[in-house]
Amino acid sequence: MSVPLGTLPRWVNFGLLPLINVAVAFALSGLVVLFIGENPIEAVKYLVAGALGDGEGIAFTLYYATNFIFTGLAVAVAFHGGLFNIGGEGQVYLGGLGVAFAALTLDRYMPWYVTAVFATAAAFAFGAAWAFIPAWLQAKRGSHIVITTIMFNFIAAALMVYLLVNVIKQPGNMSPQTRLFEEGGQLPKLGWLMQVFGLDIGAAPFNVSFLIALVAALAVWLLIWRTRFGYEIRTMGTNATAAVYAGIPYVKTVVITMLISGGLSGMMALNPVMGDAGKLQIDFPAGAGFVGIAVALMGRSHPVGIIIASILFGVLYQGGAALAFDMPNISREVIILIQGLVILFAGALEHMFRPALIVLFAPKPKSVAASSAGAA
Amino acid sequence: MDFADLIQILAATVRLSVPLIFTALAGLYAERSGIFDIGLEGKMLFSAFSAASVATVTGSPWLGLFAGILTGVLLSLLHGFASITQRGNQIISGVAINFIASGLTILLGNAWFGQGGRTPQLPNTARFTEITLPFAADIAPIPFLGPLYSGLVSGQNILVYLAFLAVPFTWWALYRTRFGLRVRAVGENPGAVDTAGISVAWLRYRALICCGILAGFAGTYLSIAQSAGFIREMSAGKGYIALAALVFAKWKPLNVLLTCLLFGFLDAASIRLQGIILPGIGEVPVQLIQALPYILTVILLAGFIGKAIPPKAGGVPYVKER
Question: Do B110 and A331 touch (CB under 8 A)?
Fold first, then answer.
């Protein structure tokens, strides 16, 4: 219980400490790889080569990163409001339904950029709608939002399977999916952007939604740190009682924060549904909603941090496939382990190294105020 | 549907509710002591893997059970270290445990057994197999009671009976022992417990160890009693259903049993109701029945059927005053 008192310099608090936490997570993963009898340095080489070795790898990495930026931002917005939105997975799933509606309605009549506007709005609306009930229950009836959003993930999965199998499925097609969207319902690939850097996109589905994700990151930054509502969100997240006392409407703030969070999750569906597959399929979120938790924790809930963390996780996801191919003894799921360790060390154990760093870096108080250390 | 069908559904209900009972009781100890445990799913999964691995190597189900319990306890201690000692966020710690279990079981399983994350098929000697209770065959012809005894009560494996014993045991431990009183107290008001000179941290650690033991039973049941080996992601969300059951049961042991049986029954029924048209209702979508535990829990949480009040100090790390 003897936590030394003192404040850390900003660069330690926001730079070094998160870096140490993530480094420990990776080091432990390396030990696991060593434990199963493989060379972790070799593994990292394959992983990086697969993810960043050529244009196609980089484009795939950025494709995955796009997903994680959206879900990471979603989790981060809720974090700022002191809420834990663990329901990203379900919100993404429902967002996909919105995207499919827009694309199936408009793809034959409109160019892609018109469809994309409606699809983005629909994705946001559907994701937000799925977050609404947990938000309202938390705000009005005090149900724990973590439990309700988990429940809503499962309800979403059941609902979407039902819809895809019984309602949406094309007659004559065995697999439960929508028809392929026409050109007006697909987001164009970003081959030209890759060419600017002299890289070839290859077969990677890297598409316009990456740019939408960057805009969303900017919008979240503006919202959280440059608007009155963002201030209210942060106040509520820091101290809900004080926020209410200061006249911030609790119910409204909780609900709108969660709507934004759910909407951002929903927007992720643009990338796999409209940017890659060109159709709505079962299980397309593939866990990206949960990766958002790791990304938001690692990026300290800041959009810039989230983009960096997303790209890192993109490297893991793309490189993990290459790694499993080159070293069959290491299965692809090593990235899930890394993800778990990042969540553990950057999240639950984020303060573990703080006392040591305070001893090293905190400015020494002039009096002997630190005498309370070692009490308790 | 005749009586034999009913017995079959009930037997399936029992089999499907056992992992839920163990896991929900595991969560009960943790949450009653004030530690939220989202990581039940991961503990169950990892225990299932350990139990199957050890049973594969040693050929003994009992050593498998021991390994499963040990794994559950170790993961619980990790959760405790993060959320009690380091006072980290309990939800995040639980999520982390789920991911670690999900990744590590496949990684290790693939490296050790080379079957893409599965463990090899276990022979019956390395499993917990069905036990036929005495007189089962003799009583079977007696109407009503006979099939009930021989088809439902008899012919389960030992872990099933243990699960049903664990419920009254937990009730007794929680409401009739000093430890239980303190666990309940520390979940409501850790400050008062601390004032009485009892260590909040040690008490919560002990509650988490109980949680780990029960989660170990749940995982062991999955991989070496219900199945004959570990399959990747074999917990398949049961940890979350158990969590829902715990909430639905309002954190009370006997309610846990009833809720888990209800959820188990829904699971059993959803398999059998596939494509069957019910009179007056029409065809019930399987997905609706599968989602029903979650929907019911949300409705309960909303306070529309009774009120679920979680332990007051749940989720809040305890900081000693100084």
Answer: yes
B284 pLDDT exceeds 80?
no
**A245-259: pLDDT as tens digits:** 999 999 999 999 999
Q: How many domains does chain B have?
A: 1
- Residue B36 DSSP SS3: coil
- To the nearest whole Å, the CA of B106 is away from the closest chain A CA by 7
B3-14 pLDDT, tens digit each: 778 888 899 999
Nearest residue in chain A measured CA to CA from B308: A143
Domain ranges of chain A: 39-328
Closest Cα of chain A to B89: distance in Å? 5
Q: Which of B102, B302, B303 sits opposite A336 (nearest CB)?
A: B102
In a domain, B112, yes or no: yes
Whether residues B294 and A152 touch (CB distance < 8 A) is answered with yes
Three-class SS of chain A: CCCCCCCCCHHHHHHHHHHHHHHHHHHHHHHHHHHCCCCHHHHHHHHHHHHHCCHHHHHHHHHHHHHHHHHHHHHHHHHHCCCCCCCHHHHHHHHHHHHHHHHHHHCCCCCHHHHHHHHHHHHHHHHHHHHHHHHHHHHHHCCCHHHHHHHHHHHHHHHHHHHHHHHHCCCCCCCCECCCCCHHHCCCECHHHHHHCCCCCCCCCCECHHHHHHHHHHHHHHHHHHCHHHHHHHHHHHCHHHHHHCCCCHHHHHHHHHHHHHHHHHHCCHHHHHHHHCCCECCCCCCHHHHHHHHHHHCCCCHHHHHHHHHHHHHHHHHHHHHHHHCCCCCCCHHHHHHHHHHHHHHHCCCCCHHHHHHHHCCCCCCCHHHHCCCC
Report pLDDT digits (tens) over A202-240: 889 999 999 999 999 999 999 999 999 999 999 999 999
What would the pLDDT profile of A182-206 be if each residue is shown by its tens digit?
Answer: 988 999 999 999 999 989 998 899 9
With CB atoms and an 8 Å threshold, state whether B322 touches A349: no
B-chain CB neighbours of A375 within 8 Å are 322
Interface mutation vs chain A, best among B91, B283, B284, most A CBs within 10 Å? B91
Q: What is the architecture, at CATH level 2, of domain A39-328?
A: Orthogonal Bundle (1.10)
Indicate the pTM of the whole model.
0.91
Identify any residues that bridge with A281 across adjacent strands, giving them in sequence order.
Answer: A177
By residue range, what is the domain housing residue B207?
3-237
Q: Give chain B positions within 8 Å (CB) of A166.
A: 285
* Residues of chain A with C-beta less than 8 angstroms from the C-beta of B299: none
What is the pLDDT, as a whole number, of residue B210? 97
B277 has pLDDT over 90: no
Nearest-Cα distance to chain B for A205, in Å, is 26
Residue located via tokens 């494996």: B157
In a domain, B254, yes or no: no
Asked if residue B170 belongs to a domain, the reply is yes
Q: Give the residue from B100, B112, B250 with the most A CB atoms within 10 Å of its CB, the best one to mutate.
A: B100
CB spacing of B96 vs A344 below 8 angstroms: yes
Query: Would B128 be classed as within a structural domain?
Result: yes
Residue A375: which pLDDT band, with cuts at 50, 70 and 90? very low
Cβ within 8 Å, pair B87-A351? yes
- Mark yes or no for CB contact A148/B301 under 8 Å: yes
Provide ipTM, 2 decimals.
0.91
Q: Are B127 and B70 in contact (CB under 8 A)?
A: no
CB contact under 8 A, B116 and A331: yes
Pairwise CA distance, residues B141 & A374, whole Å = 73
